[in-house]
Design a protein that fits this description.
alpha/beta, 11% strand, globular
Length: 1074
Amino acid sequence: MAEPPLAVRRRSRLGSAPKRSRPPVGPSAACSPLALKRANTGGEGVPAQRPVRGGTGKRKGDGGVQEGVCWGFGWLQKNLIVIYCNDSEEDMFGDYNSFCEDDSLLAQVLDTEHTRPQDAETDVKAAGEFVLEGLPSGIDQRKQDNSSASETGVICGGDTEHGFQTPENDPLDNKEDLGDSLLDELPSSQLLYFAEMRTKKIDMSKCSSLDKIWRASSPCPDSEHKNRSTEFSSDLKSDSCKNTSLKDHLKNALTENAKAQTLKVSKTKQLKEAILSEEICVARKAIGSSSVDIGPFYGLPSKVKDLFWQLRGIETLYEWQHDCLTLECLQQRKNLIYSLPTSGGKTLVAEILILQELLCMQKDVLMILPYVAIVQEKVWGLSNFGIELGFLVEEYAGSKGRFPPIKRRCKKSLYIATIEKGHMLVNSLIETDRIGDLGLVVVDELHMLGEGSRGATLEMTLAKILYTSKSTHIVGMSATLNNVGDLQKFLQAEYYTKNFRPVELKEYIKIRDTIYEVDSKAENGFTFSRLLNFKYSSNLKKADPDHIIALVTEVIPKYSCLIFCPTKKNCENVASMVCKYLNKEFRSHREKEKQDLIKDLKNIGNGSICPVLKQTIPFGVAYHHSGLTNDERKSIEEAYSRGVLCLLACTATLAAGVNLPARRVILRAPYVANDFLKKNQYKQMIGRAGRAGIDNAGESILIVQEKDKHLVQDLVTSPLENCYSNLLPEFTKGMQNLLLSLVGLRIAVTQEEVYNFLCHTLLGVQQQLLSKEKSLSELVKDGLESLIEKGLLTVKIMEKDQNSKTALAITRLGKAAYKGSIDLSYCNLLYKELKKGLEGLVLESSLHLLYLATPYDMVSNCSPNWMIYLRQFNQLSAAEQTVADMVGVPESFIAKKASGQAIRKNVDSASVNRLYLTFILYTLLKETNIWSVSEKFNLSRGYVQNLLTSAASFASCVLHFCEELEEFWVYKALLTELTKHLTYCVKTELIPLMEVAGVLEARAKQLYNAGYKTLAHLANANPETLVKTIEHLSRRQAKQIVSSAKMLLTEKAEALQEEVELLLKVPTDIPGTS
């Protein structure tokens, strides 16, 4: 067994009082955070706690107080290794020269030096090499950050091969552990100096052993120190025969340490950054391997796990999440589809995969979500991660998004996009040959592939990615998938599924006053559960024949409840009816917070509030549907999430929107509007029942009338609907749009290449379902001919080796159409109206420009009120009235319609309706108040809000359309400003605040009035101050606002920096240079 190391202690000066004895210092006092983690977690064969090797504290002498000094020496078989750490600027020796005064120790040193010179040189040389080799590669990062590993540390170690040993009970029993310990306990000066030595590749073998000891203990040198270093080294080399005293050199080294300037930076902060950088490097290497064991947190830095705990309260993963993340196909970067019931935790898996791609693989990521509200919620939620981990989060929804995105040199980007904006983003990346920068595409609600024009757009996006980039892998998730085989074939993906829910879901149906439990084993699918036990008066039976009050009072106000209703009007009626018959005791539950919510809604409506909400909120009840403004909807959702509201009457859109779970979900009827409920819709709705971490169980109750009993039996027992391609049903938005963009992006330029591409789509996989009349190749031929007729494509003859070959080329109009994502059925009409506008664009106001940006797809659903139409027309100026004549809507026509007279002149109804919508938008931009405009035009607030959102998005599309056509150059600047005003529809001073994710008009007004007037104000705000200053703002919301502002500010700064670097970049093709 090796001898225990000799302890070198400071000796008290003669005549001085003895020093106060101190208890041993444990790892928490002497080790860096990384060392602490290693000590606590341990490893195979490593004890949980390390021996004490140093301490910190204060030592008083006549020369003053010296803090943060830790030193120690260990002798093992006459071999000495000293690593000294000092963060004080005072003279370390002063008049407390205990090392020099220890005669016995110095005698041993001198004896060793004179009697065993060769061994000493070998040993010290080995020690110096060991120290350098033991440092991990992460030290380079520490050098860049001017960071330090620890304030204190003394390392004693050995290697029998080099003549020194380690005790058997020493936990540092291998070179790797000792190297880690060195890194943990060295001060910044030595870490930086070691890094410099590695960088310059100093030849240690040319230096004497004494020179190595000096170098190993030397701090990070400044210019003066480097001069001394050079002089000292040259002296040694010039006189190699001279054997200088080891005592003198040790003292010199220690003195230099004492005098060295310590960098004035936060060691804790710099150390955390160094640890994070080191773990990212390790994880990056690990994730590229095929091994399942990929690091501290699925190949990610341990900080990621800490962030999930701090920001989400997630401490551990479910078993299925671990299994899914460690799938072999993910390690091999294959595509994956995974499906679990709602609330099973699918999103967390996707977020971990996204972080792996951003941090480990250093690739950009695209996340596609179905709705604008969910995109904004996700941007809001992931901005914190971006700030902490050093990546950008960019929003692509509505009118937001840059095409192509800025190419970042340093940071990677997470693009969070709606289906439509995701398609435009992918097109721009393919066009600029940057699709390879996209490492991962995550698709939430993959079953949207089968839903109308949006499904067709999603199919086009995924097909293009699969066809143009072999390095981009796709991960899709959904709670409602059936024909997975087709989707697997289309996406070339593996499939993972589990029937897991963190909270058990019990399904029931109610017929009259009897509740049945859904049981797949029962003959008719149901088994008797119980009878409702609620006393109904005769009046109450008439008002509530479906026993809704009995069902909701079983859970509220202690628990939450959702009631899904077929229509918006039914939502409001149910909310009012429930409150009419609820006990007055419900009003006292969180009464003050309900009054605050009412005040908040009044502020949103500039003093106005919906009478239904004013009646129901005191009872903790509200409705939720598209008739609400964005601000109102957000306030109600936040109040429900906090438990202020316990009951929401809502439409089916909430089931596919933001996450608002409940203890009990009631389906008012098995209908959505007039259509019978689909199985996918039913699963989405009942999936909201049961909140993980809050409820032990979730319940869903479907209210059924006797006439619908058999239909409901089929509903609950039938499988989920299949997912079919929508490229053909949505011909202009689907098939034709795809064919046009394929040629425009030069993915396919011949009919054969186009057909080959179509074979790789979902339509190609399912082409056996096509009608027998036309094959896929015939459909391709017809589609291309149609585009040629519209002037969007042309045919060119290519001659090669005397063999003529036809190729397809896109026209300028065709390119503008696909770049702007314009529906091809409106493409030529838009071009004609823009062309006509150039002849006499009225710029006295924004009315004419607004008409050109009014979306075509809302025209068919518009029914003008002719009296309001005439009143609004008469309020226009003379110049503005000429706009109506220019677009083909004369005043006489409006006047006759308002008076009910017969119309002889033929006027285009589409132009009439479109101008009426333009009047609404024009009034809205002037008044910036949805409430007053909705009252003026006798429309619902939600309709006006939807019109505004659609107009902002369409204006952005028209802008991209005009950018591709030189004759429309005049529209570019005009449409840029109009798009911004439509996007935010607030006073100009509020726009910078509205750019922050999650900040809507009401909140922007609060912030502006409190003095937060710019993005920089918000980014540098103190969340605690925000909570105290802004009414009804929770701490969580304040932190998210600050994080989102920081992310947006960082993104803008990065964009400007990229632009500067691009401008200053020296061209490689300068004439006259070789």
